[in-house]
Amino acid sequence: xxxxxxxxxxxxxxxxxxxxxxxxxxxxxxxxxxxxxxxxxxxxxxxxxxxxxxxxxxxxxxxxxxxxxxxxxxxxxxxxxxxxxxxxxxxxxxxxxxxxxxxxxxxxxxxxxxxxxxxxxxxxxxxxxxxxxxx
Length: 135
Known about the structure:
- The protein has one domain: Rossmann fold, CATH 3.40.50.1820.
- The longest helix has 18 residues.
- β2, α3 and β3 form a beta-alpha-beta unit.
- The radius of gyration is 15 Å and the shape is globular.
- 26% of the residues are buried.
- The chain has 135 residues and is of the alpha/beta class.
- The protein has a 3-stranded parallel sheet with strand order 1-2-3, with helices on both faces.
- Helices cover 35% and strands 16% of the residues.
């Protein structure tokens, strides 16, 4: 794998209870209730929520992963776990760029051509990919 471009990624089970899960539990498109449904649908057994393949923040070691860009949105329950993953990658020596888009909600990236910050996010992500894949 040459790179990871993660757009408001799910990195941990909803039960972790990050501040962004509390602050953005309702009213911003993606809700805590919807994430609880997704996790219940995704996992065969609740114990799987601790498996790093389902929840990468559960991995004890992130060394050796490729350069990563993580795009997060201010008003998104997933914001904190994406940003924490980026910080953990940096601590493991992995080049990681974390870019939060203030004022945005989960899903904004798909609004390129409609929302200026979505255009900005798409431009930054493409520029980052070009730079990383050129090396």
